[in-house]
Amino acid sequence: MTPSLSEFARRVPPFHVMALLERAQALSAQGHDVIHLEVGEPDFTTPEPVLAAIQDAVTHGCTGYTPAAGLPALREAIADDYRKRFGAQVSPAQVVVTPGASGALQLALAALLNPGDGVLLTDPGYPCNRQFVRLVGGEPQPVVLQAGNHFNVDSEAFMAQWQANTRVAMVASPDNPTGNMVPAEVLQQLAQGAQEKGGILLVDEIYQGLCYTQPASSVLAGSAPVLVINSFSKYFCMTGWRLGWLVAPEPLVPAIERLAQNLFLAPSTPAQYGALAALQEPTLTILEQRHQLLARRRQCLLNGLAHLKLPVVSRADGAFYVYVDVSDYTDDSFAFCANLLEKAKVAMTPGLDFGQGHDHRHFVRLAYTCSEARLTEALRRLEQYLESL
Amino acid sequence: MTPSLSEFARRVPPFHVMALLERAQALSAQGHDVIHLEVGEPDFTTPEPVLAAIQDAVTHGCTGYTPAAGLPALREAIADDYRKRFGAQVSPAQVVVTPGASGALQLALAALLNPGDGVLLTDPGYPCNRQFVRLVGGEPQPVVLQAGNHFNVDSEAFMAQWQANTRVAMVASPDNPTGNMVPAEVLQQLAQGAQEKGGILLVDEIYQGLCYTQPASSVLAGSAPVLVINSFSKYFCMTGWRLGWLVAPEPLVPAIERLAQNLFLAPSTPAQYGALAALQEPTLTILEQRHQLLARRRQCLLNGLAHLKLPVVSRADGAFYVYVDVSDYTDDSFAFCANLLEKAKVAMTPGLDFGQGHDHRHFVRLAYTCSEARLTEALRRLEQYLESL
Ligand SMILES: Cc1ncc(COP(=O)(O)O)c(C=O)c1O
Ligand SMILES: Cc1ncc(COP(=O)(O)O)c(C=O)c1O
């Protein structure tokens, strides 16, 4: 009766953490106090000046479509921001505003990949990347990062995986789930390496600004040609508004813009007016305060994990994640998460969601997207749970 | 230096009307008063109760991600609305909320098509459909509609085009650019025909509610299994908010939901809270008033075109478009539009944008998305222009 699904659709895995989340919701509904350390978005709501700008725009009638690549003023503001905050020269003509980094990832990969083309991507890494590649018939080519090397990206080892059909190398900095930042010189080596092979490096900078051991930076401050993905979701606390952007070498932009026209028509108009305010001083000041809060939470979590002797093998310099080695307690981090939820009412994300190539059974991701008080309580419960094992 | 584009990206055509629009903007910048009859969105802004609901939600902190398939309350409200306004039984579990009808079209086709699979689509028709098919390696299979038959969809002729690799038949009702509605019995025949072939009918109902010669309807009131696309863009005047939905046979939904998770993460949260208000009485009352205004504009335009002896060969029962035969004046409707813009400062969309299979050189699309006064002035200018030829 019902027509069959495409092979792609049949093979797209769910986010495994969703099963845990459903259980967490059921526990909450029963009156349990569940602490959520699995949430991949800031617990801060969209800053007031952004909301005010949106309200102002919509009451002035700005509720129709914008150009497919975004409001010219926003493309300019984004280019300006690269100069001001990151010392990078970007032309507004290189900027395409998109429905989230999700939209940017889709556009970039659809613009570059023919069926059968390969994309190097890190394992562990952001799980959706594989699906953006597969959507257009491309081949995800996982580069397995080693826990023994702190899940760092080594440019030589990475580029050694380049195959005849590879067209794109992808990394995220700061990274999800490890929180690692890829050093500027490694990014330049990857970019040059990819260029020499006739391909390109794609850097996902969605967690830009959320770093704790060094100043915020962009690969665009370097000279090698790259494709950059970004978003107003994380640093700007606008996840629900679905707005991101990409920065591409200018010759690629007209085609990317035509793709955007056809696939999305345009990004959200109110969100774009909000984004204009997001890049201005009053909002940036609020965001820096939040950034400081995150830094304190991070330290609280790292201290607590050290006390529990749970190793954070990645450097966790950025984003709001730590990737924790639980191999002293389990060979099945999914079961570990499920039990922890039942017994201690603490939710975490099992390593499985970030790739099956790396040693995912030994890892869980903790997000510090809740208050220090909650983190402290979660650590207390975790300690009790570990003692009970 | 720059990596090469994918073949798909290279082949995606621009919207041809964009070239005219740029010229229109230049003319406006020079102080000319350009009348825009090419705009495919309502000139009405988002209704006040929708904006109020959004403002209320965001000030209460609803700015984070929602579930990938949308807020459960919105999926329920949409299902309810089918019952109340269209007499159709739809379960909330069949509804997936998406980033516009654009997102819904992409999801639906990615869920169904393997590379090489064919999709029957009307020519003339909505131009992006071809690209959603090509994105996943599918083959657009144009079904050329005949001006002599008022660009009507004939179920037998349509299904006669079904090929061995065809998986989906797509129609829009009301249609863009013809304004035609496909009669309920024809839709049921198409749905049954597609089902017998092991495929499915996809009906784009994005202009639902915008019809002038019969009550609004949905193919879902019938019994044959179909996939339906819809949006808050047009009837609800929310284009800039980027919110739509699809209704699928329930067995397809889990996979569509996983796809949505990976490709979009979630639809816009504020837009979803707005949509909840959009489906309620205060907004529906406003929208019905706007609908009445559109009905008057339509009549004004049809009268004016009749006076000019310019045939509207389609029935133009719905949407806000009329598709006009200008073959008495030109064999090149693109040049006709360009000249009309220069000489009379009236912008229209040439037939070329809606497919090259039909007699596009003889057709232009006029949208009645401006006031009656502007329409009357446009008709006056058009008359002068035609007399000058
Ligand atoms: C590394 C990474 N890239 C991209 C995204 C997509 O985010 P959005 O579409 O909200 O901008 C996410 C979201 O969690 C992410 O972690
Ligand atoms: C027939 C048709 N389908 C789908 C769309 C996409 O609209 P949206 O993504 O704004 O819902 C449009 C927009 O013009 C259209 O005319």
Q: Can you walk me through this structure?
A:
- The structure is a homodimer of 389-residue chains.
- Helix content of chain A is 42%, strand content 14%.
- By secondary structure, chain A is α/β, with parallel strands linked by helices.
- Chain A starts with 6 loop residues before the first helix and ends with a helix.
- The relative contact order of chain A is 0.18.
- One pyridoxal-5'-phosphate (PLP) binds at residues 40, 100-102, 126, 172, 176, 204, 206, 231, 233, 239, 244 of chain A.
- Chains A, B: It comes from Alcanivorax borkumensis (strain ATCC 700651 / DSM 11573 / NCIMB 13689 / SK2).
Compact description:
Chain A is an alpha/beta fold and 389 residues long. The first copy, chain A, has helices at residues 7-11, 17-29, 48-59, 72-86, 100-112, 128-135, 155-159, 184-196, 253-264, 269-278, 281-307, 333-344, 372-388; strands at 35-36, 95-98, 118-123, 139-144, 166-172, 200-204, 226-231, 244-247, 321-325, 346-347, 349-350, 363-367. Helices cover 42% and strands 14% of the residues of chain A.
